[in-house]
Design goal:
The protein has 20 helices and 18 strands. Helices cover about 40% and strands about 15% of the residues. The chain has about 500 residues and is α/β, with parallel strands linked by helices. It has three domains: about 100 residues, no CATH class; about 130 residues, Aspartate Aminotransferase, domain 1; about 250 residues, Type I PLP-dependent aspartate aminotransferase-like (Major domain) (Aspartate Aminotransferase, domain 2), CATH 3.40.640.
Length: about 500
């Protein structure tokens, strides 16, 4: 069969649309999308066939070709004909559309060793939080409805009491992230006036969110005091004026200044602010409700400690060290929180029902005797090395079931160091355990790409010393089977590559 014959037998788009094999496609996708996809596949086939080189062992009868009155384009491999029948074309288009329209936001296995990984969605939710989200999202709920009175209510009541109980604050409210919380506080408490901040705390939180910029956007004039490494109490006092609306303390959660440093303690700063009847506002950023320092993990201050020290307003995140859904939480004196609840901007910043459901459930987990057993972030940060070693060995045992596909890969269980991530506890290194993978067939970069692209659930790992490292500290319980299956799929793809 030559190229002309093959091209002549290509089915038209209308035949493909009318084929019984296309019925499922037309039920799943708009007809216009399917029509375009068939047209693109036919064009790809034409270009592919025309680009084929003639077979070296075939002979062309030129006289026959001349007598037929057509231009002989040369023979093509026999298997090509199987690629142009209708079922084969429909199958390929179905696969192409499935890839094209698959959800782009999908699960991955985090084996990087970074617990609060911003690019991978930060905090995984607890089982209680997941159940609560499903129950609230699949039907109607009491989002802004008071059942006993049969009247309208506020969405903030679902979490306010629990937050206050855990922090010692008089009142609380929730917005959609901590950046929004900071913006709301500055807008309500200091717009048109001055806010005093230490130069050593003029941080960039991430994504170009800088303290000086957010103050300017809030209509607040920034007054810098002290130096990068040293700020004293009298620096704040000397900078105060009749236009001062806030003293601001920004916790440097994503970096540390060490060495020749000085800053006033919170109690002294609060006393100074109150003497001049000025509110003290602290942005804790990653804000912890759980006492990590008590477990020997870093020196992160708790929200409760800041409130106890006399801070009037504290903001922090819900999806970092707290371990819940993305949210910004504002706690403090009731008179100030009530003002923010009436701010016109609050409606634009308010959280939805699923965020509140997840946050409330996470707070319930925090109030239980051992929250580290229920909340994934807390569990991952506090899990012992012995437990991690057992989990790594469990994965190695599962790999034995796929031994025939893993001949091109070499595995080794090694000591490792994990990170907290999410701009929290930057100096903390968590002793951990990892599975080190290397291959003589491909380099670490290629192997890492295969781990991301071959398995149904992408495996996100770390490259170090020309090997791929899978840190099991960030492998969630129950994902061991998925990891072993994904590694087997990658091994099978390498074996297949060798055979071809």
């Amino acid at each position: 069969m030559d190229k002309t014959d093959v091209l002549r037998h290509l089915p038209a788009v209308h035949r493909l649309l009318a084929a019984k094999e296309a019925k499922v496609l037309l039920e799943e996708y708009p007809s216009t999308v399917v029509r375009i996809a068939f047209g693109e596949e036919l064009q790809r086939l034409r270009e592919y066939i025309l680009a084929l080189e003639p077979q070296a062992d075939s002979e062309i009868d030129e006289r026959t070709s001349e007598r037929s009155g057509r231009n002989h384009l040369g023979p093509v491999p026999q298997w090509v004909s199987s690629q142009i029948d209708i079922p084969a074309i429909v199958q390929r288009v179905a696969e192409q559309l499935a890839r094209k329209y698959a959800p782009s936001l999908r699960p991955v296995l985090n084996l990087t060793g970074v617990v609060i990984h911003t690019n991978l969605g930060r905090a995984p939710l607890s089982a209680r939080a997941l159940q609560s989200v499903v129950e609230v999202a699949q039907g109607y709920s009491t989002l802004e409805f008071q059942v006993e009175e049969g009247a309208r209510s506020s969405r903030h009541v679902h979490v306010e009491r629990r937050i206050c109980d855990m922090t010692g604050a008089e009142a609380a409210l929730v917005v959609n992230n901590n950046a929004a919380a900071v913006f709301l506080v500055l807008q309500e408490m200091a717009e048109g006036g001055e806010a005093i901040v230490s130069r050593g705390q003029l941080v960039e939180i991430g994504g170009a969110f800088r303290v000086p910029d957010i103050m300017a956007q809030s209509g607040v004039e920034l007054v810098e005091v002290g130096t990068t490494n040293k700020t004293r109490l009298n620096d704040y006092e000397r900078a105060m004026s009749e236009r001062t609306r806030l003293l601001v303390r920004v916790h440097t959660s994503n970096f540390r200044i060490v060495g020749f440093t000085e800053e006033p303690d919170l109690v002294s700063l609060a006393q100074l602010a109150h003497r001049y009847q000025i509110p003290l506002f602290e942005d804790l950023g990653s804000g912890a409700l759980f006492d990590y320092a008590e477990r020997g993990i870093g020196d992160e201050p708790t929200v409760a400690a800041s409130i106890a020290a006399g801070v009037d307003i504290v903001t922090f995140s819900g999806d970092k060290l707290l371990g819940g859904a993305q949210a910004g939480i504002v706690v403090g004196r009731r008179s100030y929180i009530d003002r923010m609840k009436k701010h016109p901007l609050l409606r634009a910043l308010r959280p939805d029902k699923m965020t509140l459901a997840a946050l409330e459930a996470t707070l319930i987990d925090h109030q239980r005797p051992h929250p580290e057993t229920d909340i994934p972030v807390l569990r991952m940060l506090t899990e012992s090395v012995d437990d991690l070693l057992q989990r790594a060995n469990a994965v190695m045992d599962l790999l034995e079931e796929h031994r025939q596909w893993l001949t091109a890969l070499h595995f080794e269980v090694c000591e490792n160091t994990a990170k907290v991530g999410g701009g929290a506890l930057p100096l903390v290194e968590l002793p951990s355990v990892a599975i080190r993978i290397a291959s003589e067939k491909v380099g670490a970069t290629t192997l890492s790409r295969l781990l991301r692209t071959v398995p149904d659930v992408p495996i996100i790992a770390r490259i170090e010393d020309d090997a791929v490292w899978l840190d099991v500290r960030t492998l969630l319980p129950g994902q061991e089977f998925l990891l072993a299956k994904g590694l087997a799929d990658v091994g099978q793809s390498l074996v297949s590559r060798e055979l071809t």
